[in-house]
């Protein structure tokens, strides 16, 4: 069964190639267009389920491409933009884009946006459980699509990485998630460097969850392997 088809319009290979591989692993069939012209051609040829559209293309402005695609089909469009100003966001959405992601974005963030937009557009979403569905583990509630989390009804103030990390761990609650998988999914596709940043972020996340590393309520360190988030009902331990 083929997953939803994504047309990725991005001229920068260092972004397009890892992103296409990531999308492939997440079950999306992805085609890359590196120019505006190729984007329109591949859109007409493949009728994709969603277009990820970079705003800065070599031949035309991505906003013109959005306008042109909008005139041709109802395909959902998510803009990839390095321009973070409110004006650009509004212009993008007025042109008919369904959402936008500001570079640099994490894998988890872009996948969550894609699934949310596909769900709204009524396309079939891969996997039985929509990964951006709210996650509830005892007194913890996470809404990945809204990028918000609450502990005992109180909203947690989490940075982007902390939220991504929490979602990744909580989605696999009860199972160990390896350090390599966390680095790949929360930070970058290919991570060859130190994973010290991971430990630092886990430390910050623990503090915000009121967790104690030596007697964890939420995040258990599995030495040499990774981390394990508490499954529902494990509360009260140790
Ligand atoms: Ca570009």
Q: How would you explain this protein's 3D organization?
A:
This protein is an alpha/beta fold and 238 residues long. The chain has two domains: 5-121, Rossmann fold (3-Layer(aba) Sandwich); 135-229, Arc Repressor Mutant, subunit A (Orthogonal Bundle), CATH 1.10.10. It contains eight helices and twelve strands. The chain has helices spanning 13-25, 36-46, 62-72, 86-94, 107-121, 160-171, 179-187, 196-209, and strands at residues 5-9, 29-33, 50-54, 77-81, 99-102, 135-137, 140-143, 148-151, 154-155, 176-178, 219-222, 226-229. A five-stranded parallel sheet has the order 2-1-3-4-5, sandwiched between helices. The protein has a four-stranded antiparallel sheet with strand order 6-7-8-9, covered by helices on one side. A three-stranded antiparallel sheet has the order 10-12-11. Helix 6 (160-171) packs across helix 7. The N and C termini lie far apart (44 Å). The relative contact order is 0.10. The model is unreliable at 124-129 (pLDDT under 50). The structure holds calcium ion. The site of calcium ion has 5 residues, from loops.
The CATH topology of the largest domain is given as Rossmann fold
Percent helix among the residues?
25-40%
Biggest β-sheet: strands ordered side by side in the sheet: 2-1-3-4-5
Major beta sheet summary: 5 strands, parallel
Tell me the β content.
15-25%
Poorly predicted parts: 124-129
How far the N terminus sits from the C terminus, by CA atoms, comes to 44 Å
Counted up, domains total 2
Bound molecules: calcium ion
Total DSSP E strands: 12
- Principal-axis shape: elongated
What is the number of helical segments per DSSP (H or I, 4+ residues)?
A: 8
Q: CATH homologous superfamily of the largest domain, by name? A: Response regulator
Residue-averaged pLDDT, rounded?
84
Computed Rg: 19 Å
């Amino acid at each position: 069964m083929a997953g939803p088809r994504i047309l990725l319009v991005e001229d920068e290979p260092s972004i397009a190639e890892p992103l296409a591989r990531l999308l492939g692993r997440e079950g999306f069939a992805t085609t890359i267009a590196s120019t505006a012209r190729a984007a329109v051609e591949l859109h007409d040829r493949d009728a994709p389920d969603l277009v990820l559209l970079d705003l800065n293309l070599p031949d035309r402005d991505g906003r013109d491409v959005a306008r042109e695609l909008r005139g041709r089909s109802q395909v959902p469009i998510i803009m990839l933009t390095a321009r973070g100003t409110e004006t650009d966001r509004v212009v993008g959405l007025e042109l008919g884009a369904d959402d936008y992601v500001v570079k640099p974005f994490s894998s988890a963030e872009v996948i969550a946006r894609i699934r949310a937009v596909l769900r709204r557009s009524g396309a079939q979403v891969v996997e039985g459980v929509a990964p951006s569905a709210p996650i509830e583990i005892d007194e913890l509630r996470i809404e990945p699509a809204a990028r918000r989390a609450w502990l005992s009804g109180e909203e947690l103030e989490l940075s982007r990485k902390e939220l991504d990390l929490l979602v990744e761990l909580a989605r696999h609650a009860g199972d160990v998630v390896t350090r390599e998988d966390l680095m790949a999914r929360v930070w970058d596709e290919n991570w060859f460097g130190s994973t010290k940043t991971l430990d630092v972020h886990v430390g910050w996340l623990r503090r915000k969850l009121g967790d104690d590393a030596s007697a964890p309520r939420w995040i258990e360190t599995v030495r040499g392997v990774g981390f394990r988030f508490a499954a529902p009902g494990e509360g009260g331990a140790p």
